[in-house]
Design a protein that fits this description.
- Helices cover 0% and strands 18% of the residues.
- It contains no helices and three strands.
- It has strands at 3-8, 14-18, 38-41.
- A three-stranded antiparallel beta sheet has the order 2-1-3, with no helix packed on it.
């Protein structure tokens, strides 16, 4: 079953729900505030790999030995929320 991402319109929490492809718009309570007013968030699928540019640079969020993501300039992942 696919995983769909939703944003609560009450508290702005983003959460994921696993459900069948025939019911992506079925109501689901927000896990944070229990609100039922949620909007589906459309994002690029996660195919489990790392993106590379034509020059070979990595743009994924794999963790480096420095404690941060390779996609973060700060080294602490605070900028990408990983």
């Amino acid at each position: 079953m696919p995983v769909y991402e939703y944003r609560c319109t009450d508290c702005l929490t983003v959460f994921e729900v696993r459900r069948s492809m025939s019911a992506p718009e079925q109501a689901e309570a927000c896990p944070h505030c229990q609100g039922m007013q949620n909007m589906r968030v459309y994002s690029a699928p996660n195919l489990g790999g790392v993106s590379h540019s034509s020059s070979g640079e990595s743009y994924g969020h794999e963790h480096s030995h420095g404690g941060g993501c390779a996609g973060c300039g700060s080294g602490n992942c605070g900028s990408c929320h990983h």
